[in-house]
Amino acid sequence: MRSGTTEALSRRLADEQAGSRLPSVCAALVRDGASVWCDARGTADGRADGTTVGPGTQYRIGSITKTLVATAVMRLRDEGRLDLLDPLERHLPGTALGGATIGQLLSHSAGLQAEPDGPWWERTPGAGWEELTGSLTVASTRHRPGRRHHYSNVGYAVLGELLARLRGAPWDQVLRTELLEPLGMTRTSTGPVAPYAPGLAVHPFADVVLPEPAHDAGAMAPAGQLWSTAGDLSRWAAFLAGDTGDLLAPDTLAEMSEPLVLNDVPGEAWTGAYGLGLQVWNLEGRRLVGHGGSVPGFVAALRVDVASGDGVVVLTNSTTGISATVAEDLLRLLEECEPRTPPAWQVRPVGAGSLELAGQWFWGPAPLVLRALPDGGLSLVPTGPTGRGSRFVPSGSDTWTGLDGYYAGETLRAVRGPDGAVRHLDVASFHLTRSPYDPGTDVPGGVDPAGWR
Fold first, then answer.
1. 0.90 cut: is pTM over it?
2. Domains observed in the chain
């Protein structure tokens, strides 16, 4: 990385620490699966002579914990141990929430109450599972399941217990065995391990701080108790960017990253959504995934640009104050100062069947182009103001299955005439022809015999 880039990034971090009055802040950037920059400002206690912080300093990461819990649950799904449509009752009987599905719990669409009953759970000693589940009633479901996004820490406490029951081990031990140790995230734990930054509140009208309590959250811990470092979370950012190894199938990560429930604010264009354990952001056409974290004494952010794979981690030990844009600002600076060089074009073989179909097609009068992709795939792209596009993968002789867009899961079939030549394409009952409403093909509804006029 060029010196000008590191100077710009470190200056943005310094401005944030000073301008937002943060005791300390640590940030890192990830590209191509590796950390390419990390810097920190301030000290652990905010004092001039305090302990410096760095990539190995632990901070509480709050709800970023949920991304690991969700990944472990999805591993169970991939093993066939559960289905996202399963009601909770099937695997965790005896709660008042049994009708909620696993998928709804993961996406915060089960309608559950946001926080547990009782005192502020993030600042008081946590209760066990029996006490938590005993406090939940039918009224704990605040909204019709599936109706809307309603963030629920309680829902992830339930998922943590589900994970423990199905694996036969505490939720945090499951995460350590299945994710943290294989990924080399040795500085991630349920409690602080030195060196770590204490949680602090900064007085709004004076340059003084107040220590925040940090109790064991008990049954609520899966919602946000983990501590981690910029170094460890850089590895997790690389994971969410696609470097999952053999721990999670790429298709499953893509499924987790799909925006399932919008965080809708009436009258405003949506910019935030939730997938299966991952927050999703739409920032001026850029899609980012990851999660934020906030508990008394700490704020954390982890975001990955889906298109580029670049990731950012930001950690601070202040209850409030950090600006909402610092993570995006660091990603933007990386992109501006170190733009990626596009890979060189090169020949890639395509299937003979897909090459035969490449070229101009029409959906009625609407023009589209079908491109042949490597490994026999196809890409259907509208070239006019209307039309529906999708990518397809081969699924049989003269058939392809849609990967995305309107035709996801639908079949594209090449229909041949008696001479063996392709006459038209059938896509989910729609006919695509080589010319607009080609009268020489079997257009549903027929073509006016007088033709165009």
1. yes
2. 3-337 (3.40.710.10), 352-433 (2.40.128.20)
